[in-house]
Automatic annotation (TrEMBL):
This is Glucose-1-phosphate thymidylyltransferase. PROSITE patterns: HEXAPEP_TRANSFERASES (PS00101). GO terms for molecular function: acyltransferase activity; nucleotidyltransferase activity. Keywords: Acyltransferase, Repeat, Transferase. InterPro entries: GlmU-like, Hexapep_transf_CS, Trimer_LpxA-like_sf. It comes from Hypericibacter adhaerens. Transmembrane segments: none annotated.
Length: 209
């Protein structure tokens, strides 16, 4: 929370459809709190999953989604309507794919939410993150989720120019709706991108450098 008990950021200003796609997130006011509780929330959602899903254990795949051969989905995982999970993709640690989301070949997604029509091209990694609607990530991009280079692993974010602790050691990014991440770009842990952001190819975004 920010000063006066106000939320640090307005999640709806970054990812407008979050409350529709993932209403369970409403009990949390930061993206890292949502990610930290994602495993539990997904398991609760699976227990009441609606019609149209094929459920095997704690993995639910909508009948209109396509999961190509040799993709690996680990529970809990929900693949929504019209999604594509391409060959050799690896989803683990609690993943929700909103309607029309695409995970390309040999992409790893760990503990993340992809909202409607979010797309990740081949050979990319997205860890502990929330991707807004219409986000497009080109090939080979990385959203890092851990401060491997620091003795102090605690992740901080910058909001309105001020540095804030998250209280966690695993958090990747909040990527606002319709943002574009170029090929081989790297988003350091704790990245907060406004809607319609553009990250050039080969760029490094480290807001807490």
């Amino acid at each position: 929370m920010g000063a006066g008990g106000q939320p640090l950021l307005d999640l709806a200003a970054y990812v407008a459809d979050l409350a529709v796609t993932f209403p369970e997130a409403g009990s949390h006011d930061t993206p890292w709190a949502i990610i930290g509780d994602l495993d539990r929330i997904l398991r609760a959602r699976l227990a009441r999953i609606g019609a149209g899903y094929e459920v095997q254990g704690e993995i639910a795949i909508h009948h209109t989604a396509v999961v190509e051969p040799h993709a690996v989905l680990k529970p809990p995982c929900i693949v929504g309507p019209g999604c594509l999970v391409a060959a050799q993709a690896y989803l683990r640690g609690g993943v929700l794919l909103g309607e029309g989301a695409v995970v390309g070949p040999s992409v790893e997604v760990k503990t993340s939410l992809l909202l409607e029509d979010a797309r990740i091209a081949h050979l990319s990694f997205v860890g502990d993150s929330i991707l807004g609607s219409g986000v497009n990530i080109e090939a080979g991009a990385m959203i890092a989720n851990h401060r491997n280079e620091r003795a102090d692993k605690a992740i901080h974010v910058r909001i309105a120019g001020a540095r804030h602790p998250t209280g966690v050691e695993k958090f990747g990014a909040l990527v606002g709706d319709r943002s574009r991440i170029g090929a081989n770009a790297v988003l350091a842990p704790g990245t907060i991108l406004a809607p319609d952001s553009i990250v050039p190819r080969l760029a490094l975004v480290d807001q807490d450098a």
